[in-house]
C-alpha cells in the first residue's frame, strides 16, 4: 500500500512566550488517506488549529517552534521543504477554509480578484480562462449571478455567501486535501447545515480529502469516517466515527457528548458542562492531562501519563486513558455507561472548588 | 456621493468665513499700526499726514464696516493693494504660488517615497534592529527643524561638494532640470518632518493589518510574502496613512515659510513672513485666507481619495 496522503507522526509544536515555551502540540499522530474525510475534535486551545496550520506552515515564524516530529504530505516532510516548494503546496495541493468568513476575506479586493489570485499562483490559465473559471467556481458553490457577484467586495455579501466564496477559493485549484478550520462556528445554525452539505457534496465530487476541525461532535457525526479527539496538545481518542458514537471510551469524550445539545433528548434535560480548566501547557502535569477535570480519576491518573492504546472494543479504536485500557492498575471504566454514571460526586465537588479557587486568584 | 460633497463644501465655506473674520481681527491684535507702518519712522511723526492716511485707508471707519468692505472685495476678486509694494494682491499671490506648490508637492512626494518602504520594513521586522533604526530615523525627522537642516544641506551639498546650487528659483516650465535641482534641497528639508510622522503611521498601521485574518488567508494561497505584504497588507494599511498625509498639509505650508526664507524662494510662505515684518496687513490677510483654502481643499481631496481606496465607504 502506498503512503497516505497526509501522515503526521509524533508531531510537536512549541510557542515561545515570555513565560517559556508552551507545548501547544505534544506528540500527535494523525493520518488522512486520499479522498477521506476525517474529523479533529476538541475545545478551544487544545492545539487542533495549531496542528492544522502547521501543515501549511502558517504560524508566525518568530514564535512557532516546529518539531520534533514529521508532517508528511505525499511522503514529503513539509517541515523540511524550502519556501518555494511550500508555496506550491499552499493553495495548490492543500487548501484551507477558515473559521470566520467575515474577517478572512480581504475587504478592499473583489471576491473575483481574490479567487483569481489562487489561479494565477497555481495554474497557467490566461485572463479570459481565469475569469471563466472564477464564474464556474462561484456557481459551483451556489452563488447566483456569479458574473456580477465576482465584482463585489466582501462587505456586500452575507456571512453564508462569504463562506461559500471561501470554499470556492479553496477548491479553485482542485486541492487533494482541504483543511476546514471551524468553518461553521461563525455562522447561524440554519446556515451551518447548508455549508456542511455543500462541502460534503463538493469533496465527494472532486474526490478531495478533508480534515474537518471542530469543537462540535455533531458536525463530525454526519460528515466523517474517522475522528480524532484532541485535548491539551494530545490525541486522547481516535476511532471510526460510528464506533466513537457507539462506544466512546473515555471521560473527556463523554464530557464533550454530554455538553452538546441533542435533538433526541427531552427538552427538560440540562446540558452538563465539563468542569474546570485545561492545564497550563507551559508546565503540563506529569500524569494524564485531563485528570484535573476528570470525575472518574484515580491515583495513577495524576502520577503517570497513559499512552494511546487499543480501546476495549478493539479495531482501530484507540484511547489515552488508564480507566479505559485493559492494563494492570487500569481498566476500571471498561463497561461504564457514561449516560448513567457521571462519576464520583466528591471528585466533582473537588474540581468545582479547585476551579473556583483558580478563578479568584486570577 | 454628491450630497456628501455638497455638505462638505458647505462646511468648508463656514470654516473659510470664520478664518476670514479671524485673519481680519488679527490685524488689530498685532502691535503696530498700518498707517504708521506705511509712513515709516519719520512720517509717523507728522500727525497731520498720519490722520490723512488713516482717513484714506478707511482705518477710521467702524470694524464691521471695514470687514464688510474687505470681504466684499475678496468675493468679487479684488484683494486690494499691497501696502508695502503697492502692487495688486491677486496677481502677486498667483506669482508666488508656483514655488510653494512645487516645494510642497516635491516634499510630499519625497516623504511618501521614503516613508512607505521604511514603515513597511519596520512593521515586517518589528522588534528588531530594523525597527529600532527606523524609529530613530523617524524621530530624527520629526525633531530636526527644517530650517536648520536646510542650512546644513546648503553647507554640505552646495558649499563643500558643489553638487547643487545653494539657492534660487527657476519656474518648472522655463528650465525643468534646473528647477528641480534648485528645489531638491528645500524639498528634502521640508520632507523630514512629514516622513517622520508618516513612517510611524505606516508602521503602526501595517503592524495592525498583519494580524488580520485575511493575511493568513493570503498566506495560505501560495503567493509570495512580498505579494502578501504589498498587495494585501499595504493596500489596507494605507487607508489611515492617506488621512495623516492630508492632515499634514497645514504643517507643510507652515514649514514652507521657514524653508523658503532659508533658500531664498519667492513663495507664499516667505511672502507671509515678509508681510508680517513690514506690517503689510492687506497682503497678510489675503495670504492667510489662501492658506486656509488650500488646507481645506487638501482635506476634502483626502477624504475623496479615501473613499476611492476603501470600497466599504459610501458617502451619502
TrEMBL record, chain A:
Q: Name one GO biological process term.
A: peptide transport
Q: Which SUPFAM superfamilies match?
A: P-loop containing nucleoside triphosphate hydrolases
Q: Does the entry feature the keyword ATP-binding, yes or no?
A: yes
User: Transmembrane: is it a keyword of this entry?
Assistant: no
Q: Where is this protein localized, as stated in its record?
A: Cell inner membrane
| Any GO MF annotation of the entry | ATP binding
CDD domains the UniProt entry points to: ABC_NikE_OppD_transporters
Q: What is this protein called?
A: ABC transporter ATP-binding protein
- Give the species this sequence originates from: Psychromarinibacter sediminicola
Automatic annotation (TrEMBL), chain B:
Alphabetized UniProt keyword annotations: Cell membrane, Membrane, Transmembrane, Transmembrane helix, Transport
Membrane topology note: Multi-pass membrane protein
Keyword check for Transmembrane helix: yes
Q: Which GO terms describe its molecular function?
A: dipeptide transmembrane transporter activity
Question: Is Cell membrane given among the entry's keywords?
Answer: yes
Q: Which residues form the ABC transmembrane type-1 domain?
A: 97-302
**Stretch forming the signal peptide:** none
Cellular component aspect of the GO annotation: plasma membrane
- Record InterPro entries: BPD_transp_1_N (IPR045621), MetI-like (IPR000515), MetI-like_sf (IPR035906)
TM annotation in the entry: 103-124, 136-160, 180-199, 237-263, 283-306
Q: Where in the cell is it found?
A: Cell membrane
| UniProt record similarity statement | Belongs to the binding-protein-dependent transport system permease family.
Any idea what this protein is called? ABC transporter permease
Species: Psychromarinibacter sediminicola
